[in-house]
Amino acid sequence: MSRLGSRHEHSGPAQIATALHTRVLGSSSVLLDVRTLIFCDLAITLVLALALLLYRFTQKTYAAFDLWTLGTWALALGYLSMILRGHPLPEGLSILLANVGFGLGGLFRLDGALRHVRRRPLPRPAYLTVVVPVGANAWFHWIHEDLVARTVVLESFLVAICLCIVATLLWRPAPRQAMYRAFALLHIVFALVLIANITLSIVRPESGIFDPVAQRVLLYGSTTVLETGIGISFFMMNARRLEQELMDRVVELRTAMSEVKLLSGLLPICAHCKNVRDDKGYWHQVDVYLKAHSEAELTHSVCPSCAQKHFGIVLGQDSMPPGRDDG
After folding, report:
1. C-alpha dihedral over 76, 79, 82, 84, to 10 degrees?
2. CA distances from 298 to 58, 75, 326 (A)
3. Domains in the chain and their CATH numbers?
4. Are 286 and 298 in contact (CB under 8 A)?
5. Whose CA is closest to 267, among 247, 286, 288, 248?
6. pLDDT per residue over 245-286, tens digit each?
7. Dihedral, 130, 46, 186, 102 alpha carbons, nearest 10
8. Which 3 state secondary structure label does DSSP give 283?
């Protein structure tokens, strides 16, 4: 009989299952170290934040891209405060910074989505909603210690932001582009992961935030992948906006060019009356022809020769008889 069997030969199935779970979890504690997963999230977020910042200063970007950059830096602050929790940051300060970082990061991203798709900003008072998770987490840390309540409040707030971003991307009159649908899908998956973590936190309230349990591994492990996809989407949507702007400029230029009328080639003109013949063989007065085939605005006057010949008035080269300008 094995050592495990001899040790638990008089134990029930529940005790044996607990021993097996402890042994398996203990053997894989390195793989399931939650702090390592959070550090991976921090590393990915910092790399994306630096890349967004570099792109911001080297390429043409829009207000939405700036907000996405700010949001990524805010998320990096949240992950950093979690890693430093307990040493050197006090736990309470770490909790507040994490809630501020994650809350503002989500709001910045929502504001960017609204500006990019709807061309309107998030109302400024909406940023004040970040006090909800911050205040609730302060209460459930200093006044009434409750880790489950802190988790439910913060992650419910983030779920609401994810759903608002999805609605912004998919609800009419948002343009139905495959890129927007993919971006919305990433936030749907993110919301589902958060909901799963909330549910498992309620079901298993005894687990700590850094305990290598299933919901923590699911949350922080999937966050690494989702943050990478969302960060790439920021670059793609900014490039798509720039491409659309260039296409609109091309259309405007083509429209302007089509409205420009140029006269070129040989024009048959009568040697006596100076009428001009068009392509269909009809003869027109030269002023009528020029007005129809160019953008010139004609005004009438009398030259010095005609003034002397027809009116008996001697004019200088730059003069004209009063009342004869019909322009």
Report:
1. -50
2. 49, 65, 10
3. 32-255 (1.20.1070)
4. no
5. 286
6. 999 999 988 887 776 666 666 778 888 788 888 878 888 888
7. -10
8. strand
